[in-house]
Amino acid sequence: MKVSFATASIMLLLLIAPQAFAAPPVKQKTPFNKASATKPAADPVDAYIKLVSPKIQQAWKAPEKTTAEKVVVSLTISADGKISSVVIKEPSGDQAFDDSTVESMKEIGQLPAMPPASKDGMTLNFTFHAGNRNQTRKADNEAYINAFSRKVNSSWRNPKVDRNYQVTVAITVDKTGKLMKADITKPSGNKLVDDAGVRAATLAQPYPPIPETLSDKMTVSYTFQAGPDKDVVNKMQFNGVPLPKGDYQISSGGAQLRPLDVDTAINRKLQEREAQAQDKMLMLKSKLAQEESKYGAQSIQAAKAQHAVANCAVELHDYKEAEAAFKAALPPIEGDPAQAAELHLLLADFASMYATTARLKEADPLLSRACELGKNSAAIAPLKQRKVMEDYARLLYKLNRTQEADELYKRLKAKP
After folding, report:
1. Does this chain's domain 136-230 share its CATH topology with 336-416?
2. In this structure, what is the dihedral angle of CA atoms 395, 400, 405, 406, given to the nearest 10 degrees?
3. Is domain 8-25+38-133 classified as CATH 3.30.530.20?
4. pTM higher than 0.70 for the full model?
5. Second label for 118, Cα 20 to 30 Å away, from 14, 26, 345, 380?
């Protein structure tokens, strides 16, 4: 994508040496007439800026693919016209955009020498805008950034701190959406908050794949806010039992649903438990990546790691991620007859997740398979067989398949 135009606004930070501001000598008064009137001499510094600005604008090169709107760069020019320093003053949020700007400014190298009044050099600030970009691509890019943001926001957990903090994390992903790194660019001064920012960036992966309209990698900076004023009451109570917001159901008896006090001991305990589960998820995803790298994504080792990730996602109430992990784990385990015990457990856990989210019809075939597997395989412990049969009987009652449930209970009673 070619940028159709580039504009730059300039602010002069350091113009000339202090002695250049000395008062002009007093002249003898002379009678005024048109012949004696002359135009004031042009400011040599202004004239110099007008001379070099077009050269700087023409030298600027923006990357063909970017979501950035602008970048502010600070250019230090010595008296002989040499560009001695190029510094990003206000980042664009797109590392490729910033890098391209710095490189194009450095390539200028030499500008015309400054006027004598500016013997100490000067520093100019330029704001470079991306220009008239293709609107269709712009819409695609904005959609990607919105999806990216939702992933990050859903992973952020406000740590329990006594005052307000904010931390900025630069998140870099590759073309596939894989997290390459998460670096703190502006620390909060509180390790708990800084760790929470990096954890959010890590838990949010995998990110959406970068669209064709963007570069092969992208760095997006996020500022997370933490503290009492930023806390969101996301713990609810249903029939006296704490539940995460969104994971509740009003009973026909009209039980009340109310927010818990964020300062109560039980809510603090829930937050601690959730933080522990998040740390566990980071560890499990790291292990999964190692197993996939060593044995392959379709290996038994990777499938077992996926199973562990799925169970942890259930613990974090992230049922969408849990379902995806369960589905990824199934094929390799199903294809290996030696994994009967693992398959039995996987089917039971997968069904339990569906039952928890009231997707009973989807839980049914999974528990049915697990029961048959337990009946026909000596590798599955009797207690585990019994537990699955009991779970399936309860599910059948909920599905109003009373006769099947009764038959299953008869089999359970007949077992020693």
Report:
1. no
2. 150
3. no
4. no
5. 26
